[in-house]
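Consortium newsletter contribution from the modelling node. Members have asked for a concrete example of what our holo predictions look like. Here is one, prepared for the iron/sulfur cluster complex that several groups have been discussing at recent meetings.
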Amino acid sequence: MNGRTASITFFSGTGNTRHACTLLAAGLERAGWRVRLREIAPPRPEPGTIGEAGVTPTGQPADLAVLAFPVFAFGMPHLVRSFVRRLPPVDGVPAAVLAVYGDDFAGPPSARRRTSGFEGGALGEAARLLSRRGYVVRTSRGVGFPASFTQALQPPVPDEQRLIVADSDATVEGIAADLDAGRHVLMNRRPVLRAAGGIVRALFSLLGRRVLGKLYVADGRCTSCGWCERACPASAIRMRGQGRARRLPRWSWRCEACQRCINGCPEAAIQVSALRLLLLAGVALLPYGRWFAAAAPGISFPGSRFLAWFVGTLLLTVAVDLLVRLLERVPGVRRSFWISHTRNFRRYRGPSASGAGGHPGAS
Ligand SMILES: Cc1cc2nc3c(=O)[nH]c(=O)nc-3n(C[C@H](O)[C@H](O)[C@H](O)COP(=O)(O)O)c2cc1C
Ligand code: SF4
Ligand code: SF4
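And here is the predicted structure:
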C-alpha cells in the first residue's frame, strides 16, 4: 500500500468507458493506490453526488482525480460537461482526463485495417473546465474502443471488437503505470482538426444530440418491458400509453445520444425511423437564411443567416415532431415509421456490459 488515493469519475453510454475505468482502477490498486470509482449516472447525476470528484470517501482531497468519458462529436458528452461545470471549486487537486473514442475496421474483407477514432477538442475542453474548478490537469490521454454509434454505423464485427479491446486494454494498463510512476502526458494533437471540431461540438450539444433522440422509434418487437426508460442516463425516455393502448417508449428532447437504449434493448426493437430521419433532415435543409433576408432586408449582421437557419430549424423540428406523434397514433400509419436501416444492424455491448449497469440483466 503506497497510501495514495485516486478518485475515478466517469460516464459511459455503452460500457467502453466503464471498462477502461475498471481496468485503470485495477492497475492503480495493484500499485498500492486506494481507488474510488464512481459513475455519473444512472439514471441522472443526483444533486447530492455533484461535486465529489477528486474527493475520497473520507472527505479528503484525492491525490489524483480522474475524469473519463466517451467522445461524442469531437467533444465531451453534454451531461459530463454540465457535471464538471457544477463541481464545487477545489484548490489545486491534481487531475487526469481520459477520453474514450471509437475505433473500427475498414476496407475490403481481404485487407481490413483498423481505423482510429478522434477525440477532437474533448481533452482540451475537459482540461479547461476542470482548471476553472481549481484542478490541475497533469495528464490527458485518449484511447479507442469499438465505435458505438449504432444509429448511423454498424458496430465492428465481434472478432474485430475483440482485437480492438485487447489492444486498448494494454493502452489503459500503460496509462495506469504512467500515472503511478508520475509520467504525465498531455495529449495535444492535430490542432487544425481540433479547431474545426469546435463548431460541430457546439451544434451537437445544442441541437444534434436532441434530434438524434427524436429519430428513435420502438418497432413491433417491443415488449413494453420498460428497460430503456430505466436505463437512460438522461431520463429522456418515458413509457407512454394508457387504457387499452400498449405502453411504448417515447423519446423527449433531452437525449444525450449515448446509444445505450438502441444497443441495450433486449429485443433490438429500437430503430432509427427512416421517415422521421427524412422529415427532420428535410427541415434542416430549408433555406431559412434566404427567407429571412427576403422578409427582413434591413436586418443583417454577422451570422444573421446562420441564426435564422438555427431558429427556423429548431421551430420547424418541434412542429414536425408534434405532427409525427399524432401520425404515429394511427395504427395503419404507425408501421411506416418502423422502416429503418438499423433493423438489421448488430447491437454493441461494451466489454464490461454484462456485469455492470446500463444493459439488460444488469440494471
Ligand atoms: C453521438 C456519438 C458521437 C461520437 N463521436 C465520436 C467522435 O467524434 N470521435 C470518435 O472517435 N468517436 C466518436 N464516437 C464513438 C464513441 O466515442 C465510442 O464508441 C466510445 O468508445 C463509446 O464509449 P462508451 O461505451 O463508454 O459510451 C461517437 C459516438 C456517438 C454515440
Ligand atoms: S427496452 Fe426495448 S422492448 Fe423494452 S420497452 Fe424499451 S424498446 Fe420496448
Ligand atoms: S434516449 Fe437512448 S441514446 Fe438518448 S440518452 Fe437515453 S439511452 Fe442514451
